[in-house]
Amino acid sequence: MIEFKNVSKTFRSGQKKVEAVKNVSLSIDQGDIFGIIGFSGAGKSTLLRLVNMLERPDSGAVHIQGIDIQKLSAKELRKRRQRIGMIFQNFNLFNARTVAGNVGYPLKLAGIPKKEREKKVTELLQFVGLADKAKDFPDQLSGGQKQRVGIARALATSPDILICDEATSALDPDTTADILKLLKQVNQDFGVTILLITHEMHVIQSICNKVAVMEAGEVIETGNVFNTFTNPQHVTTQKFIRSVQQDLPSKSILEKWKANGGKKLYRIIFQGDITNQPILSTTTRKHHVDFNIVYGSVRELQERLFGNLLISFTGDDSHIKQVLKELKTIVKIEEVDDYESGLV
Amino acid sequence: MKVDWSSFWPQIVEATGQTITMVVATLIFGSIIGITIGLLLFVTRENNILENRFLFQLLNFIINIIRPIPFIIFLVAISQLTRLVVGTTIGTAAAIFPMTIVASFTIARVVENNLVSIDPGVIEAAQAMGASPLRIIFTVLIPEALGPLILGLTFVSVSLIDFSAVAGTVGGGGLGHIAMTYGYQRFDGSVMLVTVLILIVMVQLAQWIGNTLSKWIMRR
Ligand SMILES: Nc1ncnc2c1ncn2[C@@H]1O[C@H](COP(=O)(O)OP(=O)(O)OP(=O)(O)O)[C@@H](O)[C@H]1O
Ligand SMILES: [Mg+2]
């Protein structure tokens, strides 16, 4: 659907050069809700704006449905843009137009006759739950309502792609959840492919099926959300994941644990069906080892279960080794070292 | 020597009419030219929808040259050009020409300032929807800036009333001329008082119209 092929974009202002996007290759499939996450300045917005050529790449290409959109003429590009909806962190509504006027604007651009336009606007406002606000002006709306108008406006011309630049970053947690639900609905009801960027991992966790992590202009990790969450490769990815699910107790608790002669801690990660089986107790019983769960959780992610437990074992050293060896064949298990726990 | 008010009134009425003609005509021509230049100035800026360094620098340069010149000096300085274009340097029509030039550049700056305060995100949203630059000018820039723009134009019209009086003193006719020849040179305080009162009423009226209009456009 959308393909970034070795795209780079550098901004030059005077002597300064900022490589906002560095040699990024990504491919977003039809029907995806693809999330790009990264800290501020990572180059997310720039990458997103390459999709509708609000920014032009210095090298590389962006293909949409197989077409290199950089090669389109100005007029063709405008036509193509009508089928790429975009929503923004600050909503960017036309203040001089009513809610209905805002939603109707892209339809006017597309040359849709008045009657049809009005019908479509009514439908869209119903879809986003703002039918009663049609005649209001944007400054009479709350942030969440403004974003609903933004979404309705972006969907007006029945786009096949929706790109979202931090669509929920200006909203409170409850409103964020509502807007995310709405985006999911857009994806499911209309089959719109969504590319969103965010700096909040919970946004990715709640609606995305795929994720890419960006740092300093580069994509450092990408994959489906379940795998990335359960097996993050890059330190930055791990950091983001910890922001939504703490997989370690706090440093002070770990220090206390160590000071009181606590044993080595092991992290066990369960995924999917394995969470239904009593692996731990069968293995430890077999080798006469006791285990103690120090910390952990089992949660749902992408409709699959995912467990993360910190465990210490008591028993004969050689037996513990046996237990570890056996567990390793079934689940992911690793020693929690001092570096990871922040004790060094 | 005092004027005879019974026969003088018609002259006052005529002069008021001339002043209004000068101000309104200048406002109309000045707005057409000024809004066009202001829009050009805005859209040709760096990173804007029709970025054009040369045009921007040129317009900016001309405005910066003309605006600081005191109106009375400008009026005299371009009198040869006025004669060439209008055919004469005295009378209402001859006053409208230099007034329009000055008003155009003032309005251009006012327009530019109002446009700069539009959130660039809104322009970007229109671009992302596939709006052409011309479309953006007429359906985004102008509507979004209209409320404050009317207030800006009101401010300009008030100073045009001032300019018309200045033009009047050097042969432009209107209330400035009356005030100068009867009130000042013949020391008739009553004429001075009447012209001043009429000018005050005109300013108030212009301000009131502008405020009402912009309030109506901004609807809040
Ligand atoms: N038009 C521009 N001119 C110059 N530099 C720019 C421009 N746009 C972005 N940059 C720079 O490029 C880098 C990436 O910016 P970008 O907006 O893509 O980051 P981001 O990941 O979206 O950050 P944030 O989360 O803060 O929005 C930054 O260093 C930024 O300063
Ligand atoms: Mg950004």
TrEMBL record, chain A:
<dbReference type="Pfam" id="PF00005">
    <property type="entry name" value="ABC_tran"/>
</dbReference>
<keyword id="KW-0067">ATP-binding</keyword>
<dbReference type="InterPro" id="IPR017871">
    <property type="entry name" value="ABC_transporter-like_CS"/>
</dbReference>
<keyword id="KW-0813">Transport</keyword>
<protein>
    <submittedName>
        <fullName>ATP-binding cassette domain-containing protein</fullName>
    </submittedName>
</protein>
<comment type="similarity">
    <text>Belongs to the ABC transporter superfamily.</text>
</comment>
<keyword id="KW-1003">Cell membrane</keyword>
<dbReference type="InterPro" id="IPR018449">
    <property type="entry name" value="NIL_domain"/>
</dbReference>
<dbReference type="GO" id="GO:0005524">
    <property type="term" value="F:ATP binding"/>
</dbReference>
<dbReference type="GO" id="GO:0006865">
    <property type="term" value="P:amino acid transport"/>
</dbReference>
<dbReference type="InterPro" id="IPR003593">
    <property type="entry name" value="AAA+_ATPase"/>
</dbReference>
<keyword id="KW-1278">Translocase</keyword>
<keyword id="KW-0472">Membrane</keyword>
<dbReference type="GO" id="GO:0005886">
    <property type="term" value="C:plasma membrane"/>
</dbReference>
<dbReference type="InterPro" id="IPR050086">
    <property type="entry name" value="MetN_ABC_transporter-like"/>
</dbReference>
<keyword id="KW-0547">Nucleotide-binding</keyword>
<dbReference type="InterPro" id="IPR027417">
    <property type="entry name" value="P-loop_NTPase"/>
</dbReference>
<dbReference type="GO" id="GO:0016887">
    <property type="term" value="F:ATP hydrolysis activity"/>
</dbReference>
<dbReference type="InterPro" id="IPR003439">
    <property type="entry name" value="ABC_transporter-like_ATP-bd"/>
</dbReference>
<dbReference type="Pfam" id="PF09383">
    <property type="entry name" value="NIL"/>
</dbReference>
<feature type="domain" description="ABC transporter">
    <location>
        <begin position="2"/>
        <end position="241"/>
    </location>
</feature>
<keyword id="KW-0029">Amino-acid transport</keyword>
Automatic annotation (TrEMBL), chain B:
<feature type="transmembrane region" description="Helical">
    <location>
        <begin position="136"/>
        <end position="157"/>
    </location>
</feature>
<keyword id="KW-0813">Transport</keyword>
<dbReference type="InterPro" id="IPR035906">
    <property type="entry name" value="MetI-like_sf"/>
</dbReference>
<dbReference type="GO" id="GO:0005886">
    <property type="term" value="C:plasma membrane"/>
</dbReference>
<keyword id="KW-0472">Membrane</keyword>
<keyword id="KW-1003">Cell membrane</keyword>
<keyword id="KW-0812">Transmembrane</keyword>
<dbReference type="InterPro" id="IPR000515">
    <property type="entry name" value="MetI-like"/>
</dbReference>
<feature type="transmembrane region" description="Helical">
    <location>
        <begin position="191"/>
        <end position="210"/>
    </location>
</feature>
<feature type="domain" description="ABC transmembrane type-1">
    <location>
        <begin position="16"/>
        <end position="210"/>
    </location>
</feature>
<feature type="transmembrane region" description="Helical">
    <location>
        <begin position="84"/>
        <end position="108"/>
    </location>
</feature>
<comment type="similarity">
    <text>Belongs to the binding-protein-dependent transport system permease family. CysTW subfamily.</text>
</comment>
<dbReference type="InterPro" id="IPR051322">
    <property type="entry name" value="AA_ABC_Transporter_Permease"/>
</dbReference>
<protein>
    <submittedName>
        <fullName>ABC transporter permease</fullName>
    </submittedName>
</protein>
<keyword id="KW-1133">Transmembrane helix</keyword>
<feature type="transmembrane region" description="Helical">
    <location>
        <begin position="54"/>
        <end position="78"/>
    </location>
</feature>
<feature type="transmembrane region" description="Helical">
    <location>
        <begin position="20"/>
        <end position="42"/>
    </location>
</feature>
<dbReference type="GO" id="GO:0048473">
    <property type="term" value="P:D-methionine transmembrane transport"/>
</dbReference>
<dbReference type="Pfam" id="PF00528">
    <property type="entry name" value="BPD_transp_1"/>
</dbReference>
